[in-house]
Input
Amino acid sequence: MQAINHKEADHVPLTFRDTNLPETYGKPCRNQFEAVDIFLKLGVDPMLYLAPDYLWELNPKVKERIRKEKVAGEPFPYLFKEYDTPKGVLRQIVRQTPDWPHRDNVPLWSDHMIPRSRSKKYLIENMDDMESFSSLFGEPTEKELESFHEKAERFKRFAEDRGVIINGGDLGIAIGDIIAWICGIENAVLWSFRRPELLHRLLDITLEWNVMYARQILEVGGVDVVTCRGYYENADFWSPRIYKTFFAPRLQKLIEVVHRGGAKFCYHMTTGIMPLLEIFREIGVDILFGPDPVEGKADLEQVKDRVGDRICLWGGMNAPVTLGTGTQEQIEDGVREAISKLAPGGGFILSALDSLILGSDAKTCGSIPWASVEHMIKVWRKMSNYPIS
Output
């Protein structure tokens, strides 16, 4: 919290997002609490991630139907998914290509539905679909809210005992990403020019749900940070002008809700951040999870100069390339560059972006050698208590 608040801290914090531990440390972790304890023993600064289990749960009045059909002239079977909502029926059709990972199911949210080559029909294509979509989700029941409050109490007790912070939302808070999943990123971009009323309406609907979830997360108390994912809101897809028209005003409303709830707002965007930095500053972003000098092509020095006095910068290193394929010298250079450019003056949390997905193999975490992670931690210990010239 000292780093987030741009105050003097005793060291540059280091934390990893979405991690489990390899079997080097015994059996795989059963929950976040076990992982946090192990990371604390390693000397790093883990967070707890708290989200309701009912996040994006369908309205109980919605009926789902799915069928698979071989279509003449098509090389791949079609999967037809329907949602019968109180305001109408939503339909989507995807091609079940050999790399389709969901078997005979069509999930509501999936990156695999975004390409036009795979989606024969997107879930939302017109204003009638918008109205059906607005009734797709239900408000949580009293039992679900009670269960979430009980879960939050366990998290708060553990966080207070261990001295770690709670990050709410666990990337379940999302506005633009939902747009990409349900209508395709190309359609959404075209709507911003040709049918802006469609995009405005869809974003208003997603904002309404996100505000409700954010308030429920904040109402349990003890949440230090609320994170909103923005993978598909970046400047690789949207110009700053379009971003400022469609996304910035809605994010600002969500940020105001988070601030009124006494928490900091973390924006998760790991590529295409450079043209949008000043907008982030204007709308009140507190933490930017995303400065990645490798895959994200972020100029760390510029990022610090332009927004580092107002926005806490979380990241600075790349995970799959620098840790996944880099030598020990390259890892050391990555840590040194991140700390030297982003740490001076405070407001910096070191991390390897985007995340470490740790496998059960004791020697690797996904494609990343665990030895590389350990080396990063070792180098960080030597460099974390002062900016490097």
Notes: The chain has a mean pLDDT of 92.
